[in-house]
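FAQ: What does the model actually see?

It sees only this:
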Amino acid sequence: MDWTRYRFLSRWSLPAAPATVYEALERAEHYPRWWPQVREVTRLDDSTGVIRIRSLLPYDMTFTAREVRRDPAAGVLEIAMSGDIDGWARWTLTADGEGTLACYEQVVDVNKPLLRRFAVPGRPVFRANHRLMMRAGRRGLAGYLQAV
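And it is asked to produce this:
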């Protein structure tokens, strides 16, 4: 097992139509407005940006995100990531009654030296840290969607 590789899957039930959720998620530069752990997004061009995140643990992770797929009709947004983490992440949105089910999938290899050094003993803590970040993101986006 590669202890520095992570696979994450999160499902968010959101109180808005898929098109509205898609519109919010495709604007990565607005994530810091509603997702506290996304500290900074700096656009480099129309399809690339640098993102800095920090959850409960006292370390930042910075990576370049490059758009791989933007398909509003299918409800899919996908990026490739490189930097402190390398890999990909994808949002897939589907109608769920009056709202939306947002499925977030991520597969990454961690490059940040501190996280690599503590890969084995820290793995449960790193996974819990990610869960907390995703929980806060869902709450933040749900509140943001209700306000717009």
